[in-house]
Amino acid sequence: MEKRQIDEKIEALAALREQSLLGGGQQRVDQQHQRGKLTARERLAKLMDEGTFQEIDSFVTHRATEFGLGNRTFLGDAVVTGYGSVDGRRVFAYAQDFTVFGGSLSEVVGEKICKVMDLAGKSGWPVVGLNDSGGARIQEGADSLAAYGDIFLRNTRYSGVIPQISVIMGPSAGGAVYSPAITDFIFMVKGIGQMYITGPDVVKAVTGADVTHEELGGADSHASRSGVAHFVYPTEEECLSEVRRLLSFLPSNNVGDPPVYATSDPAGREDPELRYIVPDEANRPYDVREIVYRLVDDEEFMEVQPDYAPNVVVGFARFAGRPAGIVGNQPAYLAGVLDINASAKAARFVRFCDCFSIPLVTLVDVPGFMPGVDQEYGGIIRHGAKLIYAYAEATVPKISVITRKAYGGAYIVMSSKHLSADINLAWPSAEIAVMGPDGAVNIIHREQISQSENPEQTRLELAKDYQERFTNPYVAASRGYLDDVIDPAQTRGRIVSALDVLQGKRDSLPPRKHGNIPL
Q1: Could you report how far apart the first and last alpha carbons of the chain are, in Å?
Q2: N or C: which end of the chain has fewer CB within 10 A?
């Protein structure tokens, strides 16, 4: 072939690439920007390290020719797929392109997404999906529905194999919401991202309820009420930056190790202020995050689902450069009690960490499970059992620190020695008992208190005696249920030391297809 012909073909290729970069055309790109939204390729560029994104299947077009689609084809169809780097580590990604047929899912779009997911699974790299779609492409009927099924299958097959992250940057309705729901974490952009099974019009027609798109499926609703969203941010740029941050805590796959980052924060750093954070009074609140920030590297803590079930705090941090998952009861909200939502939230986080070999550090200050008719009828027994199951099944290093109270079944649930935790520590302020001193003496010494000339004084004296004799941490330590009672100021050093010695931990479960967690 002559040089001129080669040059012409290269020019033609360049022209086609230039065409594909415009997605649905300049007018649609301008409309996307007018809505305050980035285009699919702009989003991928912000997610990946500069200049690293490599697109695949950029010349694929839809196959449907009926129902008004006719000859309207766009290179790449309604999704951009490929791979790049985040902080130098490979990541696969796809971004639905709203400028092409409203980002609707066609047979070809489904195939492109499945291809990139399969590549991610075989290569052992995380996959990030940027969702902005009007749903299934109506013109393709069953083919578009089948495409959703193919994606759901891969979400499930690769669950626990590679990290899967969904980012909701536009509408996601009907069957489209189930792919994100299966993934590990969902990010949403306020005012732009929306998720619901049926839209406001259908809800009104069926139930009579008048609700807006934002009220029904907006970021705030899913962050605080449904618990569907794990992270919510005000802008697309900030949201994608935080996706990058989350990836920095995660390994690339289930057989790799989480990334280790250098830190100047001394591993054995002592913090005398920790001695005074927990109030003496058992019912006086404090914010467990104050403890977390003082324990972890450089006061960096990435909290997950901060607005949902805030009576338990979960998130990622580092100790001596190594990532760890943190679970802590939150005395500042509902006294840190475990209820239905808190149990499910913590259980799923524990299971994620176990999937990807991320050690668990649990901070315990729990008065028990939430009492009440609504909780019992809502299945607190079943949901509380999820947390038991999650901790008992987890084979990663498990460290717990009891800071104040640990009462009843909730003591057992919160990464106790009885659920195979590796290192269990307590502060001198810890109390471990079937119930609090006041409740215990009211049952044990009911007759003595009622016959006393000063019942209240007698009750207080008996409660103090019960506390000194039975609930102090040295009783549990004498039985080996605690490995040590420590000076709170030395907590960071003890956690770092435990994580170091447990780094090579090897544990296994009995052979089985899978367990039957009480869903």
Answers
A1: 64
A2: N
* pLDDT band of 140, cuts 50, 70, 90: confident
Interatomic CA distance for residues 420 and 459, integer angstroms: 37
Pair 330, 460 in one domain:
no
**CB-CB contact of 337 with 364 (8 Å):** no
For residue 260, is it within any domain? no
Question: Above 90 in pLDDT, residue 67?
Answer: no
Q: How many CB atoms lie within 10 A of CB 518?
A: 14
Please give the Cα distance from 398 to 395 (Å, whole number): 8
* One domain, residues 207 and 62: yes
* 11 and 105 belong to one structural domain: yes
Please tell me the total count of domains within the chain. 3
Q: Which residue segment(s) compose the domain that 462 sits in?
A: 437-471
Indicate yes or no: pTM above 0.90: yes
Degrees (nearest 5) of the Cα angle 176, 93, 165? 60
Grouping H, G, I as helix, E, B as strand and the rest as coil, residue 430 is: coil
Specify the amino acid at residue 482.
L
Unique residue bearing structure tokens 């099944």: 393
Q: How many whole angstroms separate alpha carbon 193 and alpha carbon 24?
A: 21
365, 408 contact by CB (below 8 A): no
Last residue of a domain, one of 247, 263, 288: 247
Detail the DSSP E strand segments found in 438-496: 484-485
The CATH number assigned to the domain holding 153 equals: 3.90.226.10
Whether residues 162 and 221 share a domain: the answer is yes
Is the residue at 381 inside a domain? yes
pLDDT in tens, 151-188: 999 999 999 999 999 999 999 988 889 999 999 999 99
State the DSSP H helix or E strand holding residue 293, giving kind and residue range, or none if neither. Answer: helix 288-295
118 contact partners, CB below 8 Å, separation of at least 6: 154
252 domain-assigned: no
Average pLDDT over residues 31-36: 92
Give residue 66's pLDDT: 56
DSSP classification of residue 255: T
pLDDT value, residue 68: 54
Strand 322-329 relative to strand 312-319: parallel, antiparallel, unpaired? Answer: antiparallel
For residue 107, being part of any structural domain is answered with: yes
Whether residue 294 sits in one domain with residue 227: no
Give the side-chain half-sphere CA count within 13 A for 248: 17
The residue among 115, 117, 106, 215 whose CA lies nearest residue 159 is: 117
Same domain, 405 and 453: no
Are 481 and 465 part of one and the same domain?
no
Cite the active site residues: 174-175, 409-410
Sheet holding 164-168, edge to edge: 54-56, 79-86, 89-96, 127-131, 164-168, 185-189, 231-233
Orientation angle between helical segments 107-123 and 142-157, nearest 10 degrees: 10
Tell me: pLDDT of 467 over 90. Answer: no
Phi-psi group of 288: left, alpha or beta (phi > 0 → left; psi -120 to 50 → alpha; rest → beta): alpha
Q: Do 10 and 140 share a domain, yes or no?
A: yes
